Amino acid sequence: MAFYLAIKEILRNRGRFLLFSLVIALITVLVLFIAALAQGLAEANKEYLEKLDAELIVFQENVDLSTAASRIPRDKLNDIRRIEGVAEIGPIGFATATIVQDDMSALLDVSLIGVEPGKPGMPPVFEGLPLRSPRAYQTIIDGNVAAQTGIKVGDRIRIKTIVGSDEKVHTLEVIGITDGRQFFYAPSIFVPFNTWDSIKPQPNQNGRPIEGIANVVAVRLEPGQAPQIVAERIQNRVSNVEVVDRKTAYEASPGYQAQQGTLNTQRGFTLLIGVLVIGGFFQIQTLQKVPQIGVLKAIGASNHSIAVAVVLQIILVTLIGVAIGSFGTFLLTQFLPAGIPILLSGTTALIAIATLLLIGPIGGMVSVRLALKVEPLAALGM
Q1: Quick check: helix, strand or coil at residue 123?
Q2: N or C: which end of the chain has fewer CB within 10 A?
C-alpha cells in the first residue's frame, strides 16, 4: 500500500516532483563538479611525485619541503647511496619552460624535469624509447602534453627558458611519451639531468652557476626495508637533509592543503544546502496534504504505511535527481577543454553519489515526523 500511495502521488503531481528532481540534479552537478575539480587540481599538483618509482625523497634541510628551494649538491649523492637499505638513487631537477612554435609564440607552459636515465625519477615509457644518453637533447613528454599539443614521437620541439634577462630557445627531439605526470599544475617534459642542468632557467647568464645541483633525490629501497628506518639512517648520516615519503612530499607542496581544504569545505556546504532544500520541499509538501493524510488515517491507514510512503517518495525523487545530475556532469566533463583540471575517478564519483543519495532521506525526516503527528479528526476539521 505504501508503495502504491508514493507512486500514485508522484504520477498525479509529476510536474511538481520533476521540477524538484531537477533542483536536486543541479545540486548533484555542483557537488560532483567540485569533487572533480578538487581531484583534478590535486593531480595537477602531485601527479609526478605520487607516481614516482621511489619510496623516499630527500630534500635540503630547513626549506619546508619546497622542491623549488631545495638544493642537493652532487657530493651528497654518494653519501646517500652508501646508506644501508638504499638500492638506487636518482637526482631530480625541477624548472619551468615554455614550448614555442616556429614563430616564437607560446604553445604550452610545462614543467621541465631533469632525471638520470635508468635511475629513480625517470618515468616509464608507453610509446617510443626511454632516455639513455646523459647529455642528449632528447625528451620524454607526458600524456597531457601530447593531448594538448598533438606532439608525437619523432617530432622536434622548441622550448624557451629565461637566462638572466634573455630568452634562450633549445631544440629537443621527442623520443617517448609517458602517462600523465603533471607537476605543480603544469604538464611535464623530461630530459637527461645534465641536459636539464645546461638549459634550465638561470638567474644570471654572466655568472658561473654551480653544476650538478639537484632539487631533490629520489631513493628506491631494497626489498623488505622499512622506509621510516632508512629515512632516519639517511638523516643521521648525511648532513643538512630531510627525508620524507612521497605522500608527505606532495602534501607539503605550496597551497596543496589550503586548496583541498577550501574545495572540501565548499562541497560540505553544498551538501548542507541540499539537506535544507530537500527538507524544506518535503515539509511544505506534507503541510499541503495534511487533510489527505487525515483521511487515510481515518479509514485505517497505519502510521507505518504513511511513513514508508513518504520515505519512498523522498528516495525516488532524490534518485531521479541524482541520476539526471550525474549524467549531466558526465556530459559536462566530456565537452570541457583539455586544459581545465577536471578529473572524476570512479571511487570519488561513487562516494559523492552515495552521499547525495543519503542526504535525501536525512533532509526529509522532518516531513516524516509531521506526517506521523497528524491527527485524523483535527485534520478533517472535526
Answers
A1: coil
A2: C
CB-CB contact of 61 with 78 (8 Å): no
Q: Taking the model in full, what pTM does it have?
A: 0.79
Residue 207: pLDDT above 70?
Answer: no
**How many domains does the chain contain in total?**
2
Contact call for residues 90 and 266 (beta carbons, < 8 A): no
Contact 200, 42 (CB under 8 A): no
Residue 191 sits in the same domain as residue 271: no
Distance CA 308, CA 104 (A): 68
Place of cell 602534453: 145
Residue 251 lies in a domain: no
- Statement to judge: residues 93 and 12 lie in one domain: no
Based on the fold, state whether residues 73 and 222 are members of the same structural domain: yes
Which grid coordinates belong to 119? 635511475
Concatenate the DSSP letters of all residues of 98-113 into one string: EEE-TTS-EEEEEEEE
Residue 360 covered by a domain: yes
The residue range of the domain holding 345 is 2-45+257-379
Looking at the fold, whether 318 and 190 belong to one and the same domain comes out as no
Better-predicted residue by pLDDT, 204 or 23: 23
pLDDT at 205: 52
